[in-house]
Design brief:
Number of helices: 13
Order of helices and strands: HHHHHHHEEHHHEEEHEHEEEHEEE
Largest sheet: 8 strands, mixed
Strand order of the largest sheet: 1-2-3-4-5-6-9-7
CATH superfamily of the largest domain: Gcn5-related N-acetyltransferase (GNAT)
CATH topology of the largest domain: Aminopeptidase
Distance between the termini: 28 Å
Helix content: 40-55%
Structural class: alpha+beta
CATH architecture of the largest domain: 3-Layer(aba) Sandwich
Number of strands: 12
Radius of gyration: 23 Å
């Protein structure tokens, strides 16, 4: 569990640490970090484990391991819960609550088979424990979830980053990463007054039969953001956002590439569109790195400063761009419209829609 697998998030957030005993007392007194301070807890936990490898295995450190695990649970550090909880499980040190936390960490991180196996064991050894019954049922429900677009497995990605379909179990993970109000502003997403509102939004997203929203899951840091794609036949529209603590590390574009790999391989994606505000220079640079080029059409939108971008293997005529966007806007229920385009002096307007009925536009911007 080495923090240096990713470049330092912000050097100022990695100051010299106090002795471990002092840090544990401080963490336990605070109980739970503020979202803005959570990254300092994550970095410090990894610092202590890297500085003293014996904390992870030596029998004499069982109590310290338990206290470190409790801190990891307090700040929803799921990779570290997976790490320390796995060690305590293997050494026979884990209590029932810790075993449940370990199963939850696997489940929320998209490791459904290990989570299911552990929940079965807990159900066998604690047949009358309601927490074991409820967790086992929840994991089974995730495994049986009929996603609107076919998933080749419970997650998609590589050893360091993977996409896990966004589930109700990710409520706390989402909240930690989403605390920066700029994310909602730039992505035109809801503010989410409470957990109930977030769960309702997830239900709304999953009610559509042509879009998938994913948790972006990092091997060492857990939930770091989200990426989403709507499919209108072979035309796509995507957005992503990355938590403020992990921006600038190339993780957003990497998550987007994984999404394109998945959608091109399994869903037939041919061309993809995106949009961002003209003053959002980081997003514009990220889109360029991903192969997006500006759409040179006049597009009327209810939001000032929006710019559209297209990613495809070949260029297209203005008429083709207009037709693709018209179809996409209609499918998304978007108020945006392609203005009249000029072809050889004649003004041409997009043809009337003859495709699928409208669906509600879920806010789709790039962060």
């Amino acid at each position: 569990m080495s923090a240096d697998r990713v470049p330092p998030v912000i050097p100022a957030l990695n100051p010299p640490q106090p002795p471990l005993a002092q840090a544990l007392c401080t963490w336990e007194a605070e109980g739970r970090p503020h979202p803005e301070a959570r990254i300092t807890w994550l970095l410090a936990l990894r610092h202590y484990l890297d500085a003293d490898p014996g904390l992870g295995r030596h029998p004499g450190h069982a109590e310290t391991r338990a206290r470190l695990l409790a801190v990891a649970v307090a700040c929803d550090d799921l990779p570290l819960i997976r790490h320390l909880g796995g060690i305590r499980h293997a050494l026979g040190e884990a209590c029932l609550a810790e075993e449940l936390d370990l199963a939850v960490a696997c489940w929320r991180g998209g490791e459904l088979e290990p989570a299911l196996d552990l929940s079965r064991r807990l159900l066998f050894t604690h047949p009358y424990e309601d927490r074991c019954t409820a967790l086992h049922a929840a994991i089974l429900a995730t495994l049986r979830q009929p996603w609107c677009l076919p998933m080749p497995g419970p997650a998609w990605g590589d050893a360091s980053l993977r996409l896990v379909p966004l589930d109700h179990a990710h409520c706390d993970d989402f909240a930690w990463a989403y605390h920066d109000p700029e994310i909602a502003t730039r992505c035109c997403l809801p503010r989410f007054a409470d957990a109930a509102e977030w769960h309702a939004w997830v239900d709304d997203c999953r009610a559509f039969d042509d879009q998938m929203t994913f948790a972006v899951w990092h091997r060492d840091w857990g939930f770091i953001g989200s990426v989403s794609l709507v499919m209108a036949e072979d035309v796509g529209f995507f957005y992503y956002w990355i938590a403020a603590d992990f921006q600038g590390l190339g993780l957003g574009p990497k998550a987007a590439r994984l999404l394109f790999e998945l959608s091109e391989t399994h869903w037939g994606l041919r061309v993809c569109y995106a949009k961002c505000f003209a003053d959002n220079l980081p997003s514009r640079k990220a889109l360029a790195k991903l192969g997006f080029t500006p759409v040179e059409l006049a597009i009327r939108s209810d939001r000032d400063g929006e710019r559209y971008y297209r990613r495809a293997s070949s260029q297209a005529s203005a008429a083709t761009l207009a037709e693709e966007l018209r179809f996409l806007f209609m499918r998304m229920g978007s108020a945006a419209r392609v203005c009249a385009i000029s072809t050889g002096g004649a003004h041409v307007r997009p043809k009337p829609n003859s495709h699928s009925p409208l669906i509600q536009e879920a806010c789709r911007h790039v962060q």
